[in-house]
Amino acid sequence: MLRWLVGGGREPQGLAEKSVQTLGEEQTQNPYTELLVLKGHHDIVRFLVPIDDYRFASAGDDGIVCLWNAQTGEKLFELHAHTQKIKAIVAFPESYACEEKCHMILTAGADRAVIVWDCDNGRQIHKVSCFHSTVKCLTVLQRLDVWLSGGSDLCVWNRKLDLLCKTSHLTDSDISAMIELPKNCVAAAVGKELIILRLKTSKDGTEWDVFEVKRLLDHQDNILSLISISDLTFATGSHVGELIVWDALDWTMQAYECNWDASLHVDPQQEIKLSHSQNKISIQHLASDEKCVFAAVGKGIYVYNLQMKRVITFQRTAHDSTVLHITKVPNRQLISCSEDGSVRIWELREKQQLTAEPVPSGFFGIWGFGRATKQANNTAKKAPESTTVYSLDLTGDLIGHSSAVQMFLYFGEHGLATCSADHLIIFWKDGEQESRLRSLMLFHKLEQSEDLQLGI
Amino acid sequence: MISAPDVVAFTKEEEEEEEAYSDPPLPEEYSVPLFSSPFASQGANPWSKLSGAKFTRDFILISEFSEQVGPQPLLTVPDDAKVSGTFDLNYFSLRIMSVDYQASFVGHPPGCPYPKLNFVEDSKVVLGDSKEGAFAYVHHLTLYDLEARGFVRPFCMAYISADEHKIMQMFQELSVEFSKASECLKTGNRKAFANELEKKLKDLNYTRTVLHNETEVQKKNNEKGYYSTQAIEKANELASVEKSIIEHQDLLKQIRSYPYSKLKDSDFHPYEPESAVELAEDNLEQGVTTSKPDETGEMNPYPRRSSYTPKLIKAKSTKCFDKKLKTLQELCDVYFFTQTLDQLHQIEKTFRGDVCYLLTNQISRALLKKQTITNFLFEETFTVEERPPEKQSNAFQASPLDSSDAKYLEVCPVPKMAINLTVYKSSVESVPIKMDQELEDTPGTEVGEPMAYDQQDNLGYLDADLKGSVSSGESIEVLGTEKSAAALALSESQASLPQPHPSPQAVRNKAVSRRTISEDSIEVLSTCPSEALIPDDFKASYPSAINEEPYADEEDEGLRFSPSLNLDRAEEMGGDPEPENLLPADSTCCIGKESSSFLEPLPNLAPKLCDDDGVVSIPPRPYRQADQEFRINFTDYSSHDGITGSLLTYEPDPHYLMSSPETGKISLDKCSDSTVSYMSSTGSTSSDRTPSPAPLIGPSGERHKKKAGQNALRFIRQYPFAHPAIYSLLSGRTLIVLGEDKGAVEKLVTALSIFVPNCGAYAKPVKHWTTSPLHITDFQKWKLIGLQSRYSRYISILDADSKTLRCPQYRGALISRLADHRTQIKRGSTYYMHVQTLLTQLCSKAFLYTFCHHLHLPIREGETEDSVAARRLNFLKAHLGLPHEDSRVVQYLAELLKLQYLQDPVRGVSPVLRFDYVPSALYKI
């Protein structure tokens, strides 16, 4: 008896003009089958920082800092003091905090104040509000037991919030990012320039000085991302898509990549056709492991191999919109989030290929156009001497936010926290694991409670 | 003549209970005993029990033993001549009034200079009159009347039914309910009595002054030094007035010092909390106007006092028999009288219907109580029961089997248990014939097990007693009366305890500590005569008529804000909010026979009270206009694209995980727990976003079940894809019902609601009404972006208009049993029960799965998680017989169980949303 008609297993996904790789509703490799929505903010949530193994802080445009328990999703504290948007937040590394046996976070707001918070009781420890300009970035130099604030100038503070020293006005722009370099140096991104500063301290540690060592003017446009790759190298990415890998000791350029379209040896013909406007290839965020730099370039994500000094694989349109954050997580997985509100999980796969066959031209010929959505991935056409083919495969997507996902925080076994312009933080959890954990807790509680005598 | 089967019925019951103990898994009470009613021999059918009686249905009769005319019926509840029919109320009044065994002796006890008031507990008697075909639970009480002989007037309230079995079975419940009503009457009566006494005292004082003046005048006039007979007469008169004053003062003191210590303890209150609630409600609902004047009059006596002008009392105030006795209403103060009547009406409603219905209800509720871990999943009553009684539910009286009425059985606070058991017990003891050896036993048990009275024992006594009395072959059976020698002895020793209220707290504590043993049936006031009168005590300026007033005030005040008060009380009781809830623990084993109402927790938990809001049903709103608007848009859209289905996928999103600040508030709170919702097509126009969660579990109870069952039956017959839809619900996937026609959508939602597991102990996760924050004004935008379809992974969509369903496939076996479209079940309520049965079965599987140790933990060292997981799967498939998607259902329920079990008592269940990445299919008719 034909009781019903089962209409096709899958519906067409989204609008088909996008060449975004999509995954069906069946995502066997996606472990995140449980979610908790954390509500506490009233405006865009921009920052998530880990405090310790189970806590993290969130902050954003509403000026509120929320502390969360990553295990339960419970809001521990809501810190109110900033009157305007929070521009930067940094947690004191644990080893640093150990001396005082408390966890602290620093927040800088558009209200030109920097506040030190005690995460254990949610109280404000210190507040400095003598800045001439908004502090845009904060860095803790653990080794020197100081922290830096960057705005129109760079200030060095000790943890009691004494101003140790400061630079003069650097340039017209403000410092947008800072990282620590070896030999007491700091790299600060100021507009297009990368300024290397060095800290000097007297032997008794009472006198401090900071002075400019070098200015690197290799970027054509504003530096948007600055990351430390290792003790010896760091990388910068700019608005026009220049990725530069620097030597951390002598600050020379080690590698330069900007031709993201051509980087994969596509026919020049195609390249011209596909010429992107500049903002579409701005490097929003960088991440790295020892071998590779992962770049969020426009809507795509690219994997740049440091040894081979070239892009080994990429997803040109990883998302429908600009990718805002990217992170490498264990098991060769990559997570990216985007303005389109989605979070995607990628797996970097290597395949040994015995013969280096040239990729059929038709494969790339239709780039950027209505390529069949089920097309697996873009495989880098590699030099014939290499026998390894890398690919970036979509293994899962997390849909929940209704607006741009600003960033996310990978919390290991606890899951993944994502924050968004929709004011929400969603904590994604491994449903299987949570179920097991709950079972454990249940039996634990059973053991403890005597009211329920359950035979086992 | 009482025929023999009357006895059989009772003993048989007892046997049944024995069996229930030996065979716990199947509640024996569910089995239908062989039809052996007394009428069986007469060839009557089992349902024609009423044939013997001259009245059509059960009713309540209030009678008085008037000192002027003897026993007379006063009123019946319901107040309808048709109910009692040709039944001879006068004759029956005589019957019931003649079995009042209690010694209502008041007057001058030997060796006591003053008249004494006895604070007599009520007696509870069952009697039958097989000639009339009537059986009755009779509740005797005495009310004080200054003008009555011995100051007392005996009354009784009787619950009269043609079904003796019912009276026997419901004895406890009836006793509880009638005690409440009686306590209400008596409280009003004490108040009125005290008022009367005060007036009388004023009169006497006035008379004394007048007489005194007269004698003074006489003394002055009489200078001869000897008294005239007239003067002697006056002096005697004065003396007698003074004696009378002292007597009345003493009476007033006695009535004021009624052992309220008992009542002060909140959980010991037989009726006060509820009546206070009602009182508060009354004030709110009926408007202050009706009850206020009365109340203020009582509480603020000054105006009345001042307006009262004392009268001169004649020297020889003779008892005149021709005077009109006060009516019950006058005796009890109008307010309390109406309260009592309300209560009696409630009782009548509660006990309507066949006893088997009442019993089955009781039993299922009692059994439900045992499943505390799982019953939140599918039981609606779970939430409803714990609400305090609400006036609004009184409105539902349509069917005699209305369960919302039956709920009142449960709503009564637990504390009565202790009292009633003992009352019950002592009443058994008091049967004078052959109680001696039992009397010896009882004190021991009472002291030894103060909390957990062994009900079994009581029943034993009861039976023995019953057999004894029945064998006497009289047409009146006496179950028992109140007073017992043992209890009397006890009470006398305690009676010396009460002090004039040292401090409320101390009194409370004392009451608590005393409570366990002071279940005496008669409390005799201290034998100490009241020579030393405390002036304050009987000054007319005493702010309230009697001592209980301040407490009554407290009650009133407090219970208007009942949640907080309840908490306070909980704290007062030593921080343990529910000591009473512990009580029933032991009695659960006797569920078969005992009333489940004992097992009800006190409705005193604040969160549950808050939950009330979630249950309020929202009246239907004007809909028409918006509806049309939507239709335009809708057709507009569908004509463009021709794919309604894809539209549907967009629609739910805004509710689901929305972003705007306001929606952030509502949507994600709900997102985890709204499992059925339908898109309100009026979203664009209706500006109010009144939250109206779950009107489904409104107070309609039984009727709702019936309706839901009917709708569900229709649904499974009409929609060939009912199975995957139900699967979606059972596996925790939100199902969205879309449609143009609100009525049709609502029907579907109602139908499907019975398959929705609850996520917590609160409201059903069914959302009847959602107003979209994106509204239909954004309709165009959706068409353009269409990106919300990405949320489709979290939802299933049932389109009522195009008759399509988009949801994951289902291949299990479970739901075909649950929703067989060829089912022979015709009635909605039957189907509802069928579903409940299967769901309960499912719950037990989920329980087993959740709490089986070895399914979740390694059984040997170093066992891998994979191996445990494999065992888990095997268990689901092989042991529980759940292939494919069926196991998903159980896994989901198990997850809910875990969450519920682990929930933080303060924060509740964390709103976790679980989902699967599974493909959906599109089903069409």
UniProtKB/TrEMBL annotation, chain A:
Domain of life according to the entry: Eukaryota
Pfam families: Beta-prop_WDR41
Keywords of the record: Repeat, WD repeat
PANTHER family, per the entry: WD REPEAT-CONTAINING PROTEIN 41, WDR41-RELATED
InterPro entries in UniProt: WD40/YVTN_repeat-like_dom_sf, WD40_repeat_CS, WD40_repeat_dom_sf, WD40_rpt, WDR41
Name of the protein described by the UniProt record: WD repeat-containing protein 41
WD repeat residue numbers: 38-78, 316-356
Record-linked SUPFAM superfamilies: WD40 repeat-like (SSF50978)
From TrEMBL, chain B:
InterPro entries for the chain: FLCN/SMCR8_DENN (IPR037521), Folliculin/SMCR8_longin (IPR037520)
Annotated gene: SMCR8
Name of the protein described by the UniProt record: Smith-Magenis syndrome chromosomal region candidate gene 8 protein
Keywords, alphabetical: Autophagy, Cytoplasm, Guanine-nucleotide releasing factor
Localization (cell): Cytoplasm
Pfam families: Folliculin
Family, per entry: Belongs to the SMCR8 family.
Span of domain UDENN FLCN/SMCR8-type: 50-898
Biased composition (Low complexity): 679-691
Chain intervals for the UniProt region annotation (Disordered): 1-28, 288-307, 679-704
